[in-house]
Write a structure and sequence with these properties.
Number of helices: 2
Strand content: 25-35%
Strand order of the largest sheet: 5-4-3-6-7
Structural class: alpha+beta
Distance between the termini: 41 Å
Order of helices and strands: EEEEEHEEH
Radius of gyration: 16 Å
Helix content: 10-25%
Largest sheet: 5 strands, antiparallel
C-alpha cells in the first residue's frame, strides 16, 4: 500500500513492489482485511496504555482506503480480539507510551493475524457515524478510562 505521509489523507492505493518510492509517500504491507465484500478497520482506543474498546468500521472493497464508512459500530474488546491479542495490543501501547490514542488494527483474512497500521496520538473521540446508543457507550468508556488515567499514581 502506498499512502501519503500527511496525516489523514486517506489516499492509499495498491502498488506492486519493489518500486521507486515517490516523494512524500510511505509504503506498508497490504493486509487483506475484508470478507470479499466489505473491508474492516478496527479503530481501537487506548487509554492509560491499555486498549479499552473497538469501533468497527466497514467500507465496500472499492473504497477500502476512503474516510467514508458504510457502517460504524461500537464493540467490546472481547468481541473483536482474543485475550492474547489484547495482551499484544497492551504491550504495543506500553512500548509506544500511549496515554490516550487510537490505533488502527487490521486482521488479515488469510492468516487471521492482526496488524497495527496507524497510531493516532490525538484521538478524535466518538465517530460521527455511530448510533446514539453506541455514542453513549463510547463516551462512558472514554470517561471511565480517563478518570482512571488522572487518578493513577
Amino acid at each position: 500500500v502506498e499512502k501519503s505521509e500527511a496525516n489523514g489523507a486517506h489516499d492509499g492505493r495498491l502498488v506492486q513492489c519493489p518500486c521507486d518510492p515517490a516523494p512524500g509517500m510511505c509504503y506498508q504491507l497490504f493486509v487483506q482485511s475484508d470478507d470479499g465484500v466489505r473491508a474492516y478497520d478496527y479503530r481501537t482506543t487506548i487509554i492509560n496504555r491499555r486498549p479499552r474498546f473497538v469501533v468497527v468500521k466497514t467500507r465496500p472493497l472499492d473504497r477500502r482506503f476512503s474516510i467514508h464508512n458504510s457502517s460504524v459500530v461500537y464493540r467490546d474488546l472481547d468481541s473483536v480480539f482474543s485475550a492474547g491479542e489484547q495482551r499484544l495490543l497492551t504491550a504495543f501501547a506500553e512500548e509506544m507510551a500511549l496515554d490516550w490514542a487510537a490505533i488502527d488494527v487490521l486482521r488479515d483474512r488469510q492468516s487471521g493475524r492482526i496488524y497495527v497500521v496507524d497510531v493516532n496520538k490525538t484521538d478524535t473521540g466518538p465517530a460521527v457515524d455511530l448510533s446514539f446508543s453506541d455514542r453513549e457507550k463510547l463516551k462512558a468508556a472514554i470517561t471511565a478510562g480517563l478518570l482512571e488515567l488522572v487518578k493513577a499514581p
